[in-house]
Structure formats: C-alpha cells, structure tokens
Amino acid sequence: QLLVHVLCLSIVCFYVQLCETHTCVSSLQSDYHFEYTECDVLGSRWRVAVPNKADICTGLPDPVKGTQCTFSCNEGEYLDMQSQQCQKCAAGTYSLGTSVAFDEWDSLPTGFVTHGAITNEGNDQTDCSNSTWTPKGDYIASNTDECTATLSYAVNLKQPGSLSFEYFYPDTSIYFEFFVQNDQCQSTDSNSRWMRISESSWSKYTVELNKGNNVLYWRTIAYSLQGSAVKPVLLRNIQISGVAYTSECFHCKPGTHSANPGSARCTPCPADTYSNKGATTCHECEEDKYAVVGSASCKPRPACTSSDYFYTHTPCDSEGKTQLMYKWIEPKICSETVEGALKLPASGEKQTCPPCNPGFFVSNSSTCEPCPSGSFSNGTVCTECPAGTEPVVGFEYKWWNKMPANMKSTVYNQVFSDSNRRTAWEVAGEYIYTTPGDQDTDYLMLTLSVPGYRLPQSMVKDAERSELSRITFVFETICTADCKLYFLAGYNQWNNDVVERWNGRNHKQSYSYLIQSNSTISFTWTFKRTDGTRNYSADAAKIYSIVITNAIGGVATKCRRCALTSVKAGSACVLCPPGHYMVNGTGACQKCPPNTFIRTDQPVGEAACIRCGPNTTTNKAYTACLSDCILDLRTSKGALLHYDFSPLANVTSVHSSPRFTSKGLRYFHRFNLGLCGTEGRMPASCVDNVTESGREVKGYVCQSTVVPSDIRSQSLVSSQPFLIGDSLIEHFKISHLACAFDVSRSSDATQSCQQGRSATVRMRCDPTVTAKNRIMLPSNCSEGTCDGCTFHFLWQSQHACPLCTKNHYREIVSACIQGIQRTTYVWQQPVQCYGGQPLPAQKVSACVTLDFWLKFGVSTGAVAAVLLISLICYFWKKTRKLQYKYSRLMMTSGGRECELPTADSCAIMEGEDAEDDLMDLTKKSFFTKIKSFSRERTSDGFDSVPLKSSSSLEMSTSLILHG
Predict the structure, then answer these.
(1) Domain of 941?
(2) Which region holds residue 350: left if phi is over 0, alpha if psi is between -120 and 50, else beta?
(3) Is residue 563 domain-resident?
(4) Which region is the signal sequence (predicted)?
C-alpha cells in the first residue's frame, strides 16, 4: 500500500512538472481543435489535432482515419469532429449542412478580405486605404468615393456548388461587378457579371461554382459625375453551398429565433416582438412599445397623428353610393392613449360613386364591368361600333373607386422585404395616392401589368417608326423634403429599368412614354420620401389618370374609322396598302402624294401624309424617310453641286472634351453618329456595358457617358445611353456658309425636353482633311448642347466637298517653244471639291514660233512700204500733169476770163491719148526731167513754161479742149 501511495505521488509530481514545462502528455480539449487533411487520390483523409496556440502543448492526440471526402451532413446538422458523426444543431442555432451563410455583419466575418485601390485614371495623391466595404449590422455597404473597393472570399468546395447573395444597387453613379476566379487568378467565366440596377428593392443573384478553390470578388467604383451624393451598394445573405460539411452551428442573430433543434435557418420575429442573439423564442413587447418585423428590441409607441391613418372608399352599393372609410396603417405602431394623440376619424360617410372608367359599364350589381368585344363606352353604357369602324382598345383609368384588377400596391423595406404592411397606394375617387408609411425610407410601389400589345388592323408596325403602344399618366408630388418618384418599365416588377424620375415637389403634369417592344409589359411607380427616419410621412404622390393604348385584353373607349374590303355593308376592316391613307368618312384608301410617309398612329385624311424633308426619300413601307447620302444641291447662284457622303456612312464616334470629378477622375461623353440610313437599319447604337441589363439604344445619333477604367481589363466603361435622333427631318441643304445639314429628331420626350431631342450635323468641305472622324462640338457648349435638347456637330472632311466638275478647274496655255505648245488644267483656288471628275491630262499641240511671225511681219511691212512709196510717186506725177494742163489752159484763154474758145472736138478727160501722143514728141529721159525740174521755178516763185510755135499751140489747145 505504501508502494502504491508512493507511485501515485510520483505520477502526480510528474504531471505537475509536465504542465509546468508545457509538455503535457494529455492536453486539454480546449487547447486544440480537429481538422481534416487534404483528400488523397482514393478520396480518403485523416483527422488531426491542431493546437490553438503554437507553444502550449505538444502531446496532442494521434491522427485517426477520417470520414470519406464525399461525406456530408444534412441541413440543421453539423459534423462533430470528436466523434466524426453528424449531430443536430441545438435550438437557437442553425446549420445549412453543406452550405455556409453570412447574414450578420456586425463585423467582417472570418475569411472575408476588403481593400481599396486607386484607379488608373485617378490622382496619385488620393488615399484609398479607407475606401473599403463596411459592415452595417444587417448588411455590408460599399464605398462611395472614386476608389476601387474590393470584397473577396476564398472557399474550397469539395463538390460543385453554388453561391447566392442579395444586393441593393440603387445608384448608376457606381459601377458594381461580381466575378469568380480560381486559385490561379483565372476567371471561371469569360464575362464580367455586371449587376442590374435595383432602384427600389433587394435583388438576388445566383451563380454556379466549380469544385476546388474559388475566390469570390465584389468590386465597386463610384463616379460622382453630377456632383450629387452617391448611394452605396448593399450586400446581405451570402450563402455558399458545396463545402461538404460544417463543424459548428451558427447562433441566430438578434431579431430571429429557432425554436426546434436541427433548424436549417432562423425565423424573423413578428411585429411587436423581439429576440436576442441565439434565441429560441421571441418575446412580446410591452403595450406601450412596439417593434417591427425582425427587431432586436422594442421602442416606445409615439402618439398617433394624421400620418398614421389613411382614407379609402368602399365599393359601390346597389344605390350607387360609396362610403368614406378611415383606417389605421397596419401594423399599427402609434398609441391613442398618449397625451396629444389623435383618434381615428369616424367612417361611413356616404358619397355618390364616380362613373366607371371609359370602356366599362355599370352592372346590375353596381359594379363596373368591361364592355364586350366590338363595343365601346364612356363609362356609362356600352355601344356597338358603327359599320366601317373598329374599336380603339386599351386601358384608361381616371376614376379611382376601386383598385383595377391589373394593378397592385406593395411596400418594400430595405432591411426586410417580408414586411406585413401592404398599404402603399390607395384609391381616393379622383386619384390614387400614397399613404403615410412606417419609415421615410420605404418604397411605396404601384404596379400595372398588361399581357401584351396588338396594333389595330388599320395600323402597321415598322422598323423605323416602331411605336407599338404608348402610356400616358398625369401625376403630382406633394413633398416638403427631398422625395423621389420613379417610373420604371420592364418585363415584371423586379426586372425593369428606370425610365424617368422626379425629385421634390412637382405640380400636376402629364408624362408620356413610347413602348416599342412586347417585352415591356410591366410599369411601376415607386415613391420614396427621404433617406432619413419617420419625419415626412405626410409627403405623398398622386396619380390622376393612366392611359395605355393597344393593350391586349383592353377595353374600347371609342371607335375609329377603318378601311373596308368593299363598300358593302358589313365589310371587314383591312389595312390600307403602303403609301395610302384612309379617306375620312368613306373607308376608301387613297394614295399619298409622292415622297411622303404615313402617320401610323392616325392614318386618316390627307393630313396623315407627311412630306419627307429636303433630300430625303420615303422607305418602301412609307413609314419613314431615309437618305443614301448621294444627292444634288443647287446653290443660291443656281449652280448645281453633286455630293456623295457614302464614305462617311459608317458609324462615327466623337468624344466631348474631358471633364473631371472632384478627385481628378476623368470622364467624357461619347456620341455615335450615322449619316445615312438604309431599309430596316438604324446605323448608330449606344450601350450600357456596366449593368447586367446591357441596355442598348439605336438611332441616327446617340450619347453615352464613358469613363476610363481598369475594371476587368476594360479600358472604357459606358453607361447612361440615350437616344438623340431616330428619324430624319431633312437631309443636307446648302446654307450661306456652304455647309450641308443633317437634321434628325428623337421621339423620346423627357421632363426637360418636352418635344424630344434633336441633332444637327453640319458638313464642312475641307479637301485637306483626309480623316473621316474629324467632328467638332460647339466651342461655347463643350457637351454638344447648350440646353440639353438640341445638339450640334461640325463634321470636316474632304468627303463633305461636292464632286468635282469642269467648273472647278481652269486651263493654262503655255508659250510656243520650238514649235510645241502645252495646255495645262489646274483647280480653281481655293479648292472646294473632291473626287468626281479628275483634272484632264495635259494637252500638247503644234504651233509656229514668234521669230517666224516677226520676220514675216518685217518682210510684209517692207513690201508694203515700197508699194506705198510707188503709189505716192505715181499720184504725184499725175498731179503734176494736171497742173501743167491747167496752166496752159489758163494761158490760152487770155484776158477773157468768162469766155472759152469754141471746142471743135470733145474734150479728152480720162486717158487723154491725144495729148499723150503730143507730149511724146518732146519726151525726155527721166533724169533729164529731174534736172530741168530744178530750173522750172523762177526766183519770183512762178513756174517757167517753155512756149512753142503757134501752130503747135493751137494744136495743143485744140487737143485740150477736145480732151
């Protein structure tokens, strides 16, 4: 026995010594935990003990054979590593089996990593270390600055699994993407998962995951382009399946509970109850306190005010009366016993029922029923459409005594979407309005759904003017704070896009939206008061009327004249041939004038034929105007110019001057332009490559906002596309600046541009510009527009010049060199043409040089001079003869001046042959005459004439007289 005591004492001392030196043989279970090794090729693994602190103990349990790698536990169970058996979770906890879930965000859960980084285009001085995802209790929120914030989580799946999470993405100023990579940083999907905008509700996203390592990334970048506050992206309820097992159960978060063991999830506490973390049951609040669904504590009930109740009307009774009813907003959170609290007003006041909406009639039970097919009504009785007419179907709501069957009202809360409250919009006779809410952050939604659209038989839908339907509503917002009213359109209530939004107080006004696709069948009006607490619950939105045309299942409010198969009674309505309008009152089809198109919404009367603008032609369907960019224009001076803009027909992009945010981030606007349109094709398009919806608009001119980015290896991200011009008004006319114009207009109207947007493209001829994309914006309006509705572009190109003709060049003739003369053609300066007729080749022709003509002229002049001198001498000689004869005549007459000797023969006037014969008797040589001529004149100035004998004189005289 002593030996036994000594042995026990020795063992105790030994253990004390081992514990003092931290080398325990048997470690406490709290000092370590169990983990499995990696699976081998056979699918086997080992369970090993891992110390919680590296230097506490070394005497750990030996490794033992583990469960197979394919082993997993069911929902509500966890794997007990000590026994390697599945155990049920205790009450107040939950387990997803092969999944893990993260729904508590008081702090960043283990395994999640978040960090901020600067973008490529940002300022290097910017500090992004605090631009991370921030836990907010029920969710985690992204950054709101211009840094890149990334949230990541790495998980190793033992089998193929999936990931699901809920997100709230209300602001287009943030680019939000999600993607998955493997452990080699390789994307498992070729496309980036851009998230869809969710203006008023939480959206759920699910993606399949591969077996092995998966790294999940949520990444955001905020671009505060308009200078307004940016709303962060919110994440919650992240769940990953495929992890094979979980070794622990998770406690229910405050506001939820699980009453039974083996729970797969925790249930939110109902209204007016609360719970703590890990609760198995919810506790009732005291009578003077309240709690909303999923609350962790109770709050004192405030005094009831007029914002805690709403009024509505009961259906009409058999007497055609309705009762005005007042009701508390459910769930009721106010107290009527608190000092200063209001009581609920008395209900039951009877009022006359308003008439039924157009297309309905009052039945025997005093309810409004739709008119049968082929009839119409103004809200009283149904009337058959006359012969030769067709009903105009749709929905027109302008009396609100009862919520229409195809409309519903819901309330959405950012934290819990399963709120018990369903009162958001209530009917009030002449309008439908938003009731006071629990929180100013609630989204009060009114949704209208239609099954689709069908055009009447007398109308045809075409690609260029694709108006399928139109919705028009009259509304008003009464707000004292920064309330917002959104109008959304899409496939359903949760899959839609924001069409327009209004901020603050808005007076009664009308808005119209063009519907172009049969996939747009759901319309939602969402009203939100503020981002704060319950301080502006009296702010409200009112809708007075809603009209939607061509809706399938709609009712007829009127009948319209239609074209008939024949003039016989009972003929069916038919569609007029393309390019024909319907003659008003007869139903006959008449052809429109040339180069006109038909108004598809009202093809009745000659006014339905709209003439195409200058230099445009109608399409084959006579529904729009097109241009092939080949045209002839006449200037103000009458000159005809030929243009061919076909080389510029491809879609061309132009960027506005860069703009910068407060942190130096660069962004700009990109415009896509298409000058020419062909049958069935709109040339230009702008897309949204940021969100999952990938919205795209098509037309002649469109705009999008572009930001340089390194997100997912994309150099540019494009967002916020809208259409500027989708139809041609006029195409190219000559102005005093010799520019051509391309004017297009968009049918999309906004609250700022009631008549839609329009674009004017001015083409300026510049033969030196070879580039096809030199487009400039106005210097005084760097965004391309000064009012946001009318856009201007200046396009400079050699292809904007008229085609060259013979009027654009002149000829230059060179001198004659060595018998050769050249004719050269050059352009008129400055050059104002391109292409067309080229310059003619140089012409070469034979010619005579100037030296030849000079010699010929000198020779000819010399000959002419000799001839002239000869003639002078000849006539001088003749003159001397006449003078001589006259002198002799005077001498023979003596002193009888008035008498003449009797002529016995005719005088010889011309030729004088007789005298010549006489003179020849005394003729002298030429040189002798010259010598004697010098002696013929005496010193007194008279000529000396030698006298002959009388016989000779008489004969001479006689000759003279006869001559």
Answers:
(1) 902-963
(2) beta
(3) no
(4) 1-21
